[in-house]
Design brief:
This protein is an all-alpha fold. It has a domain at 15-75. 57% of the residues lie in helices and 0% in strands. The protein has helices spanning 15-28, 33-56, 64-75. The radius of gyration is 20 Å and the shape is flat. The mean pLDDT is 89.
Length: 88
C-alpha cells in the first residue's frame, strides 16, 4: 500500500481474532495488518464475483460435503506415521 492513498478506520475485535490477524500479518505481510486486510478484501471481492457468475449460469452452490472433499484434495494425502521397531 502506498502512503497517502489509504483511509484510516477502526475495528472492534475480540482478543483471539486480533491475535490471529497479527500472526497472519506477520507471516504474510511482514506484520502489516492493513496489508493483510486489503488482501482479504480483494479476495472476498473475487469470491463474490465468482458466486454471482455461478448463480447467473445456474451452477448450484457447494454443500458442506463438497467443501470438505475439496479441502482434503488441497491438503493432499495424510502422511502415514511409521511405527518404530525396537532393536533386537
Amino acid at each position: 500500500m502506498r502512503a497517502g492513498r489509504t483511509k484510516t478506520t477502526s475495528f472492534s475485535l475480540d482478543k483471539a481474532t486480533l491475535k490471529n490477524l497479527k500472526a497472519l500479518a506477520a507471516r504474510r505481510h511482514a506484520g502489516n495488518v492493513s496489508a493483510l486486510l486489503a488482501e482479504i478484501a480483494r479476495r472476498e471481492a473475487k469470491f463474490t464475483a465468482a458466486e454471482a457468475f455461478f448463480e447467473k449460469y445456474g451452477v448450484p452452490p457447494l454443500d458442506e460435503r463438497d467443501m470438505d472433499r475439496i479441502e482434503a484434495e488441497w491438503r493432499g494425502p495424510v502422511p502415514v506415521k511409521k511405527t518404530k521397531r525396537r532393536a533386537a
